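Troubleshooting log. The previous run stalled partway through. Resubmitting the same two chains, unchanged.
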Amino acid sequence: DAGITQSPRHKVTETGTPVTLRCHQTENHRYMYWYRQDPGHGLRLIHYSYGVKDTDKGEVSDGYSVSRSKTEDFLLTLESATSSQTSVYFCAISALTGTYEQYFGPGTRLTVT
Amino acid sequence: DQQVKQNSPSLSVQEGRISILNCDYTNSMFDYFLWYKKYPAEGPTFLISISSIKDKNEDGRFTVFLNKSAKHLSLHIVPSQPGDSAVYFCAAYSGNTPLVFGKGTRLSVIA
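Second attempt completed without errors. Output:
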């Protein structure tokens, strides 16, 4: 299994509070991604990174920001959490072009009350 | 606008029979396709892939077929086993753009 961890694994927070989710990899892969999974929507890309300090927006980036200061860590921040951001968040990594065979972390279940 | 569509949200199959999961795409620039499998409370795991230069790829009980003219691919699982019960995601990409995922199909294999 690819060495990907996500923290926290579960979090409950209140509307309007900032939240940061962390993804850590031990594979030294160049590409990292954040997805959210919601019923009826499948996996939707939030942001991705193609190198340290190099990031780009995905399909559903509004309300989210990311940072990557080290190869191994990719942070997802909800500046002011809303109930619509209640979801399961997955981090993924890939080595080559950025899209072949991504490996996913175990997920973080976030509930915004 | 959905570029990758899995039109069947769920599928039930008896153990030992064939499971066929379908996926349609609209972007003719897609040149690589993947299937992922997801169990509850776990991240998706890569299952099998196919390049657009092929029309079939096989790995044990899993075979993916690609019909480029119809913009359609399918995943065949033979024989189906109870452990195959999961959500299956189809994904596609072109060039250096990120993967585009379908909404998933929940497969239930009944013993």
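Takeaways: Chain B has a mean pLDDT of 95. The longest strand of chain B covers residues 86-93.
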